[in-house]
Amino acid sequence: MTPYVLVVEDEDALATLLHYNLEKEGYRVSLAADGEEALTQIDEQLPDLIVLDWMLPKVSGIEVCRRLRGRAETRNVPIIMLTARGEETDRIRGLDTGADDYIVKPFSMVELTARIRAVLRRIRPGLAEDRTRQGDLTIDRVSHRVKREGREIHLGPTEFRLLDYFMQHPGRVFSREQLLDAVWGSDVYVEARTVDVHVGRLRKALNLDTEIDPIRTVRSAGYALDVDS
Ligand code: CA
User: Fold this and answer.
1) Ligand 1 center–CA 52 separation, angstroms
2) Check whether domain 130-225 has CATH 1.20.1380.10, yes or no
3) Which helix (H) or strand (E) holds 81?
4) Domain 4-127: CATH superfamily, name plus number
5) Following DSSP, what letter does each residue of 47-72 receive, concatenated?
6) Can you give the residue ranges of every domain in the chain?
């Protein structure tokens, strides 16, 4: 599963450079040029990590950070702050903004991508590792194999990506639209009903005998993966 990184930066040249380099590193990247746009985009789809500039038009980076930390849905999103030398560095250094890490401009892309990998590894091990285990489910992203209670489960490519996404966020409820964006991509036109079809196939494949169904349907909200950890 490709980690989704939101870059919030008002300097066009730097935003373009970050976009290019992070895509090259294998991330899916979206850009926001001010704090307000960032908050709107985060509402639409929760990023796996946010690279957030400190000084931004409309809503500042610090304020964006504060608001995200104040809401249950966004409290745990990893944030790396970008700051120019001399911009209240002491406050950021103390990380009392709630950011997970910070980096002082100018910085090299090698430095930034190393920080991103480190933060993702620490906070979302599922994103950085080839293999994830949740309850009795194991997914191996290299060999593309899925096992439940040690028994191999055969999935189509879409069901595999769906399960991969669920396993990175166990217990969280996703709407059909959120699953479409995450699994099919936001630039593809697919009907919301398609999600039901693939969740149905995934569910059927996972439920070998009379085991407990790990996929929970939440009426008028969407789906979640529930596992005992
Ligand atoms: Ca700025």
Assistant:
1) 9
2) no
3) strand 79-84
4) Response regulator (3.40.50.2300)
5) -SEEEEESS-SSS-HHHHHHHHHTST
6) 4-127, 130-225
Q: Give the bridge partners for 50, in sequence order.
A: 6, 79
Residue 168 Cα to ligand 1 middle (Å): 31
Alpha-carbon gap, residue 17 to 192, rounded angstroms: 34
By residue count, the chain amounts to 229
Q: If you measure from the C-alpha of residue 34 to the centroid of ligand 1, how many angstroms do you get, rounded to a whole number?
A: 9
Which residue is listed with tokens 């946010």?
A: 50
Per-residue pLDDT at 133: 84
* C-alpha 50 to ligand 1 mean position (Å): 15
Each residue's pLDDT tens digit, 136-186: 899 887 778 899 988 999 999 899 989 988 988 888 899 998 898 888 876
d(CA 68, CA 76): 8
Residues around the ion ligand 1 (C-beta < 5 A): 10, 53, 55
